[in-house]
Design goal:
Layout (H helix, E strand, L loop, with lengths): L5 E5 L2 E5 L5 E2 L7 E4 L2 E4 L1 E6 L2 E2 L1 E9 L2 E7 L11 E9 L3 E9 L5 E10 L5 H6 L6 E6 L3 E8 L2 E9 L4 E3 L2 E8 L4 E11 L19 H20 L2 E4 L2 H17 E2 L9 E2 L11 H11 L4 H13 L24 H4 L14 H16 L2 H6 L1 H13 L45 E2 H20 L4 H21 L1 E2 L4 E2 L2 E2 L5 E2 L5 H8 L4 H12 L31 H13 L3 H16 L14 H4 L13 H15 L2 E3 L2 E3 L10 E9 L2 E8 L8 E2 L1
Antiparallel strand pairs: 1-2, 2-4, 3-6, 4-5, 6-7, 6-12, 8-9, 9-10, 10-11, 11-18, 12-17, 13-14, 14-15, 15-18, 16-17, 19-29, 20-21, 22-25, 23-24, 25-26, 27-28, 29-30, 30-31
Helix pairs in contact: 3-15, 3-17, 4-5, 4-7, 4-17, 5-7, 7-9, 7-10, 9-10, 10-11, 10-12, 12-14, 14-15, 14-17, 15-17
């Protein structure tokens, strides 16, 4: 692609093009029109009189729309172009594109305007892994319609392209004969529908779908604009002295809106997809973490996430999908490879954390919203999740969550959030065998039992079950603090191997232990000291793996990079144990980094020392936008303001980083209705209060 890629998206439908608006995808290039894990357009290239156009600028209007300003190839700094071309595109049920050509000359012109269109119908896994197709492509041509199709047995996907103008259609695209008067204007609207994708409306019939004058385009864009405005209006309003924080806050809300999608079982309600381009679908872990981050700002995301994941909760033992009764799914896919079970993602259950986190989210959602009815409705799902921890996850019979894939061919090897091949290692770089019990999994299990006990008393009216869960949690905490504590290093081991040996690398995972509450108070200060020490803290944030560990690499995916999502939960954990200033320092570092990414935090960035680079170094293949990175600034705001539901009240106990000045968050939704929170940095003004 020429220039930086331009992405527009709406849920799991997205378009990635170059800065001319063209799509010219290669087999391994994630550009094109994608919907429900299938690429419905791999070529979409505009020419005028056989020439490609030169980009002048791109107006990336909102997440769902973009406008491309172009001139033919004769335009240079020395020769003015006599024509200009504007492409306006909006995604939704495929996408609509309006092409406008302006004649700036005093003479009339006749032009041949051509849109080449092809579709390879690549499964997203095929794009990622460069595998070949097994079905058959076909094409059908109508007067104003081009249909590109693909069929493999019952798996059928079609791209239907229609125009509101008279056009000559052939198997390779659409051609317009354009006559422009002096200083005249010509406009055409094209609609591209992805047929067979989940939740995509049927295409219009040839010649009947689009109305002239761009009204249909405007109507579609107006609907998207209204939807975004409504979403933003429902969120709390931020006022602060730091302009960059305001930019990042709005960017986070807009990106969360962009990443919302409604799986078929959710009806009109939405949950967050994981990230562009590879993960525009439902992920158990990612959707739960993002819903936790966004609870004070968009609690409905958590409600839909809980319902959808509960509907797909594991019901049987299936080795191909790594499924167990009670287990929460890892990933749901709708493409060809999932349909023919070449991948196990229909759905796939290979994670060891989402099941405990499901109970954590259900309890936190009830604490925040007071929605006891949902807690009661999802009692069977929550009980099944708690049962999974003890009955199916304890692979070694030691009372810990261990993981080992049963699908050896296509299942995930590492089933914690650090799921790359080399993420779990000893300090000397050796990789442990399987099964593995990473430390944060035990923290999540502890938290799930504590929160499950609360729900059992409050919502399920089962005090005996609550007593049992609390006793199990207490025993787990004692056992964990004995077995995982690296005495000579004063930190928790990254994991235990199958023999119970400590996998002794120092990692960011210890911050999640603080968030879960499993850390003994006597050990918390040492953990905080490590998190804020030079080996882990880069000045921007906490690295995934400490400097000095054998596998440390500042641009290694899980072995030295800084993940904003990771840091948001670490800060929440530090705050839980009273390390307020440390939590605020991490929040400041990550929010400072956001300014270098125009307010949109990437999935990860380099773990180099801040003094060395003076700006955060982007990880080369990071997803952006990515849901739990988008949610990180929201959780940092909650942590800095000290927002916590207590009974029917919202407690505000702020600790802002030095120099932050005044921060106000208005209309925070919850069981209390709407409340406002105010804070000033300690170095300038008095502490905050709630109104």
């Amino acid at each position: 692609m020429s220039g930086a890629p331009i992405s527009i998206l709406d849920g799991n439908t997205f378009v990635v093009s170059d800065d001319r608006g063209d799509i010219q995808a290669t087999p391994t290039d994630p550009s094109g029109l994608f919907a429900a894990d299938t690429r419905f357009l791999s070529t979409w290239a505009l020419t005028v009189d056989g020439q490609s156009l030169n980009p002048l600028s791109v107006d990336h209007l909102e997440y769902y729309a973009a406008k491309f300003f172009l001139v033919p190839g004769t335009g240079t700094v020395y020769v003015d172009a006599n024509l200009s071309v504007i492409r306006r595109r909006a995604v939704g049920n495929g996408f609509r594109e309006e092409i406008t050509i302006l004649n700036h000359a005093n003479e009339k012109v006749e032009l041949t305007v051509r849109m080449d269109a092809r579709a390879d119908f690549a499964d997203l896994f095929e794009v990622k892994n460069a595998t070949a197709k097994k079905g058959k492509n076909y094409t059908r041509v109508d007067r104003r319609q081009l249909l590109l199709g693909y069929a493999r047995e019952s798996f059928v996907r079609e791209t239907v392209i229609t125009s509101d103008r008279d056009v000559r259609v052939d198997e390779g695209g659409l051609t317009f004969a354009v006559r422009l008067a002096p200083h005249g204007e010509w406009c055409a609207e094209l609609q591209v529908a992805a047929v067979g994708a989940v939740d995509v409306a049927p295409p219009p019939k040839a010649g009947s779908g689009a109305r002239r004058g761009g009204r249909a385009f405007a109507d579609a864009e107006d609907r998207m604009t209204h939807n975004l405005e409504h979403w933003l209006a429902q969120a709390p309003k931020l006022e602060c002295e730091d302009d960059d924080w305001r930019v990042t806050y709005r960017r986070s809300l807009v990106d969360l809106a962009a990443l919302r999608f409604s799986p078929p079982i959710a009806g009109r309600y939405s949950l967050p997809a994981a990230g562009l381009p590879w993960f525009m679908t439902m992920f158990g872990r990612d959707s739960i973490f993002t819903s936790l981050q966004a609870l004070p700002f968009a609690p409905d995301l958590a409600r839909t996430t809980l319902r959808a994941l509960g509907d797909w909760q594991g019901a049987t033992v299936d080795d191909f999908r790594d499924e167990d009764p009670g287990r929460i799914l890892h990933e749901m896919r709708y493409g060809e490879s999932a349909a023919f079970e070449e991948q196990p993602h229909s759905p796939y259950y290979g994670n060891a954390d989402a099941t405990a986190l499901y109970v954590v989210l259900l309890d936190e959602y009830e604490r925040w919203t007071g929605d006891v009815a949902l807690a009661r409705q999802l009692e069977p799902e929550a009980r099944a999740a708690l049962n999974w921890i003890d009955e199916y996850a304890d692979l070694c019979g030691t009372g810990y969550i261990y993981y080992r894939r049963r699908n050896e061919e296509t299942g995930l090897e590492n089933q914690c959030w650090k799921d790359s091949w080399d993420s779990i290692s000893f300090s000397d770089g050796r990789l442990p065998g399987f099964p593995r019990a990473t430390c944060e999994l035990q923290g999540y299990a502890y938290d799930a039992k504590i929160r499950g006990a609360r729900l059992a008393r409050l919502a399920w009216k089962d005090p005996a079950f609550a007593d049992r869960l609390e006793a199990e949690a207490a025993a787990l905490k004692r056992r964990f603090n004995r077995d995982f504590w690296v005495a000579d290093g004063q930190y928790y081991a990254l994991a235990l191997d199958a023999d119970g040996n400590q996998v002794d690398a120092l990692s960011s995972n210890i911050g999640h232990l603080l968030w879960s509450g499993i850390v003994d108070k006597s050990k918390a200060k040492a953990v905080a000291r490590h998190l804020m020490g030079d080996r882990l803290f880069s000045g921007w944030g906490v690295r995934t793996l400490a400097k000095g560990e054998r596998r440390y690499n500042p641009v290694g995916y899980h072995v030295g990079t800084v993940w904003p999502f990771d840091n948001s939960f670490i800060a929440w954990g530090l705050r839980r144990y009273g390390f307020r200033a440390e939590a605020a320092r991490i929040a400041r570092g990550i929010l400072d980094a956001a300014t270098y990414f125009d307010g949109r935090l990437p999935e990860a960035f380099g773990g180099y020392e801040r003094e060395l680079t003076r700006y955060p170094v982007q990880y080369p293949t990071a997803c952006s936008p990515q849901a739990w990175s988008t949610g990180a600034p929201l959780l940092f705001l909650r942590t800095m303001l000290g927002l916590d539901p207590t009974g029917d009240q919202l407690v505000v106990d702020p600790e802002l980083p030095e120099g932050a000045g005044h921060v106000a968050l208005y209309d925070i939704p919850g069981r209390w209705g709407r409340r406002d929170a105010f804070a000033r940095a300690r170095d300038t003004r008095p502490p905050g209060r709630v109104r």
